[in-house]
Amino acid sequence: MITLYPAYKELLKANEIFARQLLIRTYKEVKSITKAAEILKTTRKTVRKIPKRFEEKGEEGLKSLSRRPKNSPNRTPLHLECMIIAERKKTGYGRERILRNLRERGIEVTSSLVRYTLRRYNIPQKYKRSNYRKRNRFYDFEKLHSLEHFEVDLKEICDQKTLFREAITHAEKIHIPFYQRFLSFSYEKSFTNGLIFMMSLIYFSKSFGIKHEITLQTDNGEEFGGKSVDKLEYLNRVIFKPLGARVIHIPKGRKEYNAFVERSHQTDDNEFYIPQIELCKDLKEFLYRGLRWEWFYNIKRFHSGIGKTPYKKLCEYGKFPKKIVLFPIMVLDKMIHIFDIIFPETQRGGYHVLTNDPRHYKNFEYKI
Asked: What mean pLDDT do residues 217-235 have?
């Protein structure tokens, strides 16, 4: 009777303990290293090694041993590995931002060193990237003038999915506004506040000599005109066209059209609201920190997508003063009197009713 044995390597992948037991049993039966190697389709060296290891260590000798070298003269120094791991755990950043942060602190590391360290210790990122990988371009960047096309959106500051409960409680205690537009804030999610913000953005840009038409791209929220085509046409004809601007709405449910402003919301959360909101003693300090964050974000903070800071990127298209990045930090609800001056109540059309005028609320009080 002829017994057919599978190859030793195949058995080893399936069950290493059983494979080595079979090798020892075969060797004892045939009492020949060469013949046992031929039967199991392995090497004579393996047949010598496994029985000897079994005699010395018993059952432990059947387990695979570590192949790690005893000496690693080129291995990354332990203190550098610790710095890379600490930076990943603290920030959750990817390897390029970790590399940049460490180099800014004078720590000389290479991209491959950071990559292999993170892979070796398998430390996950703090935030997972979206599976959406298709890079659509919804406008031609090369044909746009500087400060011509703006993506405008409203952000809820006290987002329970982002901020800790303690931070939200503290924000409510010092009466921080609930909503953010650029770095203007408001307590009410109203069309009036949205209109004041868009007009402020247009006037601010035009004050730096911008003469071409400015486009404001928004979603279909009521604070930016809502879904009505007639209302949008009316706003563009009566308000924005005389200012050399226009407002366009993205298709419903297509947030990828406003990808840049949506991504900036995550940066605001991670680097401004989460670490700093609980440090604010009052509303005045919150607005001051907001102004400081706006300066840092545009002047100092490196942006991976453009390979430099926003201000340096802007200066590639013309000469602009640094104050162009400091859009006024406003509480839009307090700017309601400006709306009254520009659009007196007797001249307002049906689209300009102040449905959320804060002066109609008895308990609405705040001081700066």
From this structure: 85
